[in-house]
TrEMBL record:
SUPFAM superfamilies: FAD/NAD(P)-binding domain. InterPro entries: FAD-bind_Monooxygenase_sf, FAD/NAD-bd_sf, Flavin_mOase-like. Belongs to the FAD-binding monooxygenase family. It comes from Nocardia amamiensis. It comes from the Bacteria. This is NAD(P)/FAD-dependent oxidoreductase.
Length: 497
């Protein structure tokens, strides 16, 4: 039997920081037969999709960028969405990977075919097969909406921060914002001066830390261009400062006190009204959810045209929102700042050897080996897989660790002429036991909050409960002994023939 479907050595799904970085490093290692499937019409992932006003990273850009592509020209400490998108595009262009991307090509289904030792992939633009499948689909792909009675009856304008309506004129409007996560903290100060009234529905107050953002001077940029080591030093300093937050995350919750004090001082300094201050004081330990850095959010809430409502929403009506205490808030628009679905749809579409999807496995228990491979999924890799994401550290640091691991795995396989690898179940189990043990006392599960750091039953949803630099050293080399390897290439080719 011959297989006439297009076949590729490597298929990567997603063209954000992960997919682009993977393609660059795989090409450098001599893997040229690769395709990136991207459902959107442009690259950039998160930074293409989120265009709401104020959208920017919350890890300083000298750190929130590829280590192999430093950029001396960041205009601010924290690059804006447009600037980060431009950066990814420039890196992809410079490293010549644009030609590998198939835009408008959504992965619909991917199943492991044991007989042919390959992945069978259905996309919106037809089928293909691949020796290796790499998920680079990110964690924040689809918008999450609250389930509120009457939501569909709202007659005004409504949209999610991920689907910002740039044509909507906020001037003089009464606007409800539902949710107080990282996106809301960024867009609320942008729209507050324009609207007549802003009603912020808050379920829990986030910890807001000083952002220390500023424009970079021309002199600074010139220096960084001339002395690349200076850029590395800045990157290293930010890395160390942010890594220190691990003390709160997974070392000992008592380390939270100085950070909480900083948050409280910021609140005291920026909000004059003591009642509002109480409303905006978080009721859980800092670090339980990702801490948010903003100098503009709290002052915006302290303005006369803003009301912070903590009563539970009872019902959405055609032109208002009714809270349980019986108050009806008349609004012209509702903006959902309610974040993202905890299990991206792509996870439903990767189906392993036993017919179970990555989502099926995840819902049983967040699982992977090193956040990069998965038992039951031969020749499959992922970035930011369960226990491969960091609490506060730059996601790109973790992604680059995973890229190095994946590239090293493929080199090891090439050297051994191996056709199939799969992490040994007992190795994965040992890793998961270690993750569970280390997670028990983390602030993410014991800090008194609920959020996307936790599964519905209160377990660690997939953060790596140790230092990112420890993760880096653990993923530096592909540990081939942890894998079942099939080097029967001649045999397999005979069967196929
Ligand atoms: C607003 C916002 C701000 C953030 N700020 C920070 C920050 O400051 N610091 C930090 O560390 N992290 C931050 N993050 C997290 C951020 O997602 C990661 O840092 C990083 O961008 C992830 O890159 P990625 O390539 O893995 O995934 P993504 O950027 O999400 O890219 C995934 C790509 O996969 C594509 N895709 C998904 N499913 C399919 C499919 N079925 N078929 C084809 N293509 C598909 C998507 O279209 C997308 O282009 C932020 C996230 C958001 C939403």
């Amino acid at each position: 039997m011959s297989d006439s479907i297009e076949h590729r050595h490597i298929v990567i799904v997603g063209s954000g920081f992960s997919g682009i970085g993977l393609a660059i490093k795989l090409r450098e290692a001599g893997f040229g037969d690769l395709v990136i499937l991207e459902r959107a019409d442009d690259l950039g992932g998160t930074w293409r999709a989120n265009t709401y006003p104020g959208c920017a990273c919350d890890v300083p850009s000298h750190l929130y960028s590829y280590s192999f592509a430093p950029n001396p020209d960041w205009s601010r400490t924290y690059g804006t969405q447009a600037e980060i998108l431009e950066y990814i595009r420039a890196v992809a262009t410079e490293h010549d990977v644009l030609g590998h991307i198939r835009f408008g090509s959504e992965l619909l289904d991917a199943r492991w075919d044991q007989t042919w030792t390959r992945w069978r992939i259905e996309t919106s633009r037809g089928p293909l097969t691949a020796d290796f499948l790499i998920s680079a689909t990110g964690l924040f792909a689809e918008a999450k909406y609250p389930s509120l009675p009457g939501l569909d009856t709202f007659a005004g304008t409504s949209f999610h921060s991920l689907h910002w309506d740039h044509d909507y004129d906020f001037t003089g409007k009464r606007v409800a914002v539902i949710g107080t996560g990282a996106s809301a903290v960024q867009f609320v100060p942008e729209i507050q001066p324009e609207v007549a009234k802003l009603v912020l529905f808050q379920r829990s107050a986030p910890w807001i830390m000083p952002r220390l953002d500023r424009r970079t001077s021309r002199l600074e940029r010139q220096l960084l261009r001339r002395i690349p080591l200076a850029g590395k030093a800045i990157r290293g300093s930010w890395f160390t400062a942010i890594e220190g937050f691990g003390l709160v995350g997974f070392v000992d919750k008592r380390f939270r006190h100085p950070y909480e004090l900083l948050g409280r001082l910021q609140l005291l300094r920026q909000v004059r009204d003591p009642r509002l201050r109480r409303t905006l004081t978080p009721d859980y330990m800092i670090g339980c959810k990702r801490a948010i850095f903003s100098d503009a959010y709290l002052p915006a809430l302290d303005q006369p045209n803003v009301a912070v409502v903590t009563d539970t929403i009872a019902e959405v009506r055609s032109h208002s929102i009714l809270t349980r205490d019986g108050t009806e808030h008349a609004v012209d628009a509702i903006i959902y700042g309610t974040g993202f679905t905890p299990v991206p749809t792509a996870f439903e579409r990767f189906v392993g050897r036993d017919g179970l999807s990555m989502a099926d496995l995840y819902r049983k228990q967040p699982q992977s080996y090193l956040g990069a491979t998965l038992a039951g999924f031969p020749n499959f890799f992922c970035t930011l897989g369960p226990f491969g994401a960091a609490g506060n550290q730059s996601a790109i640091f973790m992604i680059e660790s995973q890229i190095a691991y994946i590239v090293d795995a493929l080199i090891a396989m090439r050297t051994r002429r191996a056709v199939c690898i799969e992490v040994k179940p007992q190795v994965q189990q040992r890793f998961l036991d270690e993750m569970a043990q280390r997670s028990k006392s983390t602030v993410w599960v014991t800090g008194g909050c609920t959020g996307y750091y936790q599964t519905p039953d209160g377990r660690n949803a997939g953060l790596y409960p140790n230092w990112s630099f420890e993760y880096r050293s653990r993923t530096r080399r592909f540990d081939i002994d942890s894998y079942d390897i099939d080097s029967r290439d001649d045999e397999v080719h005979e069967v196929r023939a």
